[in-house]
From TrEMBL:
NCBIfam families: lytR_cpsA_psr (TIGR00350). Coiled coil: none annotated. The lineage of its organism: Bacteria, Bacillati, Actinomycetota, Actinomycetes, Micrococcales. The keyword ATP-binding does not apply. Residues 101-246 form the Cell envelope-related transcriptional attenuator domain. PANTHER family: POLYISOPRENYL-TEICHOIC ACID--PEPTIDOGLYCAN TEICHOIC ACID TRANSFERASE TAGU. This is Transcriptional regulator. Belongs to the LytR/CpsA/Psr (LCP) family.
């Protein structure tokens, strides 16, 4: 009786040899498909890793020879915050040009927990002390001494170490936008087609291709606050391109995503200390970021004025800059309130 209960019913016993062979073949086919898929993914990841490895590197950070490494120009020790600080510089150099000024100056802060991205726009007309050059517009620092001097200038302002630098040119803006199939950006105010690549910008959402996006981020003469408004447009584009690049439609599309990586790496230069592993790790850590996690800030200024030489300037708000520096040091940008 007990032996009868322990016997398996006929339909649960091993299948006959022919059924076993069919089952084994089916499992082999499935396993082969999985292996091929994994191999394809591995090859795709390998390709992207190779492109990251190929990105150009230059000495973009200050060195001891520059007079500042780990300290401000006044000798105060720079604080290394809990998060990571990247300086993103967009040069106004065009093909064939060597001399240039920084048309885009954005300090990008990524908190230690990678919960968001904070873009701090430094208006190019912000009148600040430039180490060894006296006071001038902040974008003049780039013209005087390239990225290392611009880094020193900003570090003096906020008292926080800039960990890495990335710079791109206008062609990079255009190609990255086209690679993801265009972007949808939000404009705080309208501007006419004459200054925007033949397309009029309306207040609200606008769908732009690469050439239109480039004109969008460069426009300032038609905007109410000139360079301040242009900085807001640059931030809107950065948010749009980050959101689009991290969307399933791009991330899961090998053609689009590899094109985006190709456009970004071929038109960009990073500092020599930024390793390929750091780039990949940071990208992986930010994979869950969405539009609402990207925050815009304008570096504090107290109004508009005129330099001793008669140029229009944005007047530095020293107290506000100190508060910004404190938030960066403490990795508490989520509680920072712009003046």
């Amino acid at each position: 009786m007990i032996d009868d209960l322990l016997d398996e019913p006929d339909d649960q016993r091993d299948p006959p040899p022919k059924k076993k062979r069919r089952l084994r073949r089916a499992l082999l086919v499935i396993a082969s498909v999985v292996v091929l898929v994994l191999a394809g993914v591995a090859g795709y990841v390998g390709y992207l890793s190779t492109k990251v490895d190929d990105i150009a590197r230059e000495p973009l950070l200050p060195t001891q020879e520059d007079g500042q490494e780990g300290t401000t120009s006044e000798g105060t020790k720079l604080v290394s915050g809990r998060g990571t600080n990247y300086l993103v510089v967009g040069s106004d150099a065009r093909p064939g040009e060597s001399a240039s000024r920084a048309d885009v100056i954005q300090l990008v802060h990524v908190p230690a927990d990678s919960s968001g991205v904070y873009l701090v726009h430094f208006p190019r007309d912000l009148y600040v002390p430039i180490p060894g050059k006296g006071e001038d517009k902040i974008n003049a620092a780039y013209a005087y001494g390239g990225a290392p001097l611009l880094v020193r200038t900003i570090q003096d302002l906020v008292g926080v170490k800039i960990d890495h630098v990335a710079k791109t040119d206008f062609e990079g803006f255009k190609q990255m936008t086209d690679a993801v199939g265009g972007v949808r950006v939000y404009a705080e105010e309208a501007s006419g087609s004459s200054g925007n690549g033949g397309v009029a910008i309306t207040k609200g959402w606008n769908d732009l291709d690469g050439a239109q996006a480039l004109a969008f981020v460069r426009e300032r003469k038609q905007l109410s606050e000139g360079d301040i408004s242009r900085g807001q447009r640059q931030q809107a584009w950065m948010k749009a391109i980050m959101t689009k690049a991290l969307s399933p439609g791009v991330l899961l599309n090998p053609v689009k995503f590899s094109g985006f990586v190709e456009a970004g790496t071929s038109n960009s230069v990073v500092d020599e200390t930024l390793t390929s592993k750091e780039i990949r790790d940071q990208a992986l850590a930010l994979r869950g970021i969405r539009g609402d996690d990207i925050h815009f800030i304008t570096a504090p200024f107290s109004g508009y004025g005129t330099s001793p030489g008669g140029a229009s300037i944005d007047v530095l708000d020293e107290e506000g800059m100190a508060e910004l520096g404190d938030a960066l040091k403490a990795d508490e940008m989520d509680t920072y309130e712009a003046r």
